[in-house]
Design brief:
With 163 residues, this protein is α/β, with parallel strands linked by helices. The chain has seven helices and seven strands. A three-stranded parallel beta sheet has the order 2-1-3, with no helix packed on it. It has a two-stranded parallel sheet with strand order 4-7. The longest helix has 12 residues, at 20-31. The mean pLDDT is 91.
């Protein structure tokens, strides 16, 4: 997001990181900056592009905001967590885009939205889905069983243990 903002590819609008797990991952990424390819300055820029949302109260406040913004929230296939409240607040506005990054399993809210559902049920009520729904399937965070076995077959020497 920092690179996109700096290049002028996206406008300089507020970005919020609202996922406890992503917050932990960001903290680990920053603390161990010597273990990856980014320089310290690049790491600081990447880790500071979004305002970190730490509490449930801050998360709820996002749903009352108006105007352009980006909310990065762990989707969990839209089955639970903070993202569900954001969907309830923003899915019915055609000016919004909801971008799913990763696989959405059948039977989940996320899959229903990606497959064109006109409405989704949240907290016992139906919310119309008028927002533009997009999906990037190539960002799945893990391999499946067959992909892991294929990866292992290519190794010259078998590992002692795979976790």
């Amino acid at each position: 997001m920092r690179l996109l903002k700096d290049a002028g590819t996206i406008p300089d609008l507020p970005i919020y990181l609202n996922s406890p797990m992503a917050l932990d991952a960001t903290d680990i990424f920053y603390r161990h900056h010597a273990e990856h390819r980014l320089s310290l300055q690049q790491c600081e820029a990447a880790c500071s592009v979004a305002k970190i949302i730490r509490s449930a109260e801050e998360s709820k406040a996002l749903n009352r905001r108006t105007g352009p913004m980006v909310i990065i929230a762990g989707s969990g296939m839209a089955t639970g967590g903070r993202v569900v409240h954001h969907l309830k607040a923003f899915a019915s506005d055609p000016k919004n885009t909801i971008l799913f990054a990763g696989f959405q399993a059948e039977g989940t809210r996320g899959a229903a939205m990606v497959n064109g559902a006109a409405s989704i049920k949240i907290h016992g009520e139906y919310v119309p889905v008028l927002a533009q729904i997009e999906s990037i399937d190539s960002l799945s965070a893990h391999a499946d069983y067959a992909q892991i076995l294929e990866w292992l077959r290519k190794m010259k020497r078998a590992p002692r243990q795979v976790l």
